[in-house]
Design a protein that fits this description.
It is an enzyme of class 3 (hydrolase). The protein is an alpha/beta fold. The protein has a single domain, classed as Uracil-DNA Glycosylase, subunit E (3-Layer(aba) Sandwich). The protein is 34% helix and 15% strand. It has six helices and five strands. A five-stranded mixed β-sheet has the order 2-1-3-5-4, sandwiched between helices. A hairpin with a 2-residue loop joins strand 4 and strand 5.
Amino acid sequence: MTRFTPAELEAARDRLVPDVVADGLRVLFCGINPGLMTAATGHHFARPGNRFWPVLHLSGFTPRLLKPSEQRELLSYGLGITNVVARASARADELTAEEYREGGRLLASKVARLRPRWLAVVGVTAYRAAFDDRRAQVGPQARTIGDTRVWVLPNPSGLNAHWTAQTMAEEFARLRAAAEA
C-alpha cells in the first residue's frame, strides 16, 4: 500500500470518491463519508485499520479477502459502495447535521434510481442523522426506499471497539442471508 505524508492526506480533504454502483445490485453498502486515505487512493474503506474488507469476506459476501484497490470486483458479486456524504474528511464528526440530512436525500434518490434489493448503511449514527430516525438500531429497518429494503450495519472503523471483526461478520452474514433469500 502506498504511504502518504500528512500533507498528501490533507490535500485529499473534500475530494470526491466515485461510487462503485450498477443497476439492480443485491446490496448497496453505504459508508458515512470517505476518509482522507480513501480520498487519496480513490478506493473505499482504504484505511488499513478499517475492517470493512475483512468483514465482508468473513461474512461470506466475497469468496476471498479483497483489497480496496479491487473494489470494482464487488460488482461481479452484485455488491456496490456509496456514501451518505460524498466529501472526504479526516473524521465523521467534521460533518454537519445538514450534510447528513442532504446526504440522506441524495442517497434516497440514488437508491430509487439504482434499485438495489438492500441498502446497507454502515454506521447506525450516520443512518439516524441522514434519515432522522433517532431510535434506529443495527439490523433490518422498517423503512424502505421504493422496493429497496434497508439494513443498518455496525461501522467497520477500527475506532468502533464495541464490535469485533467476528461479531460484525455475524451481522453482515445476517444481511447476506436475507439478500440471498
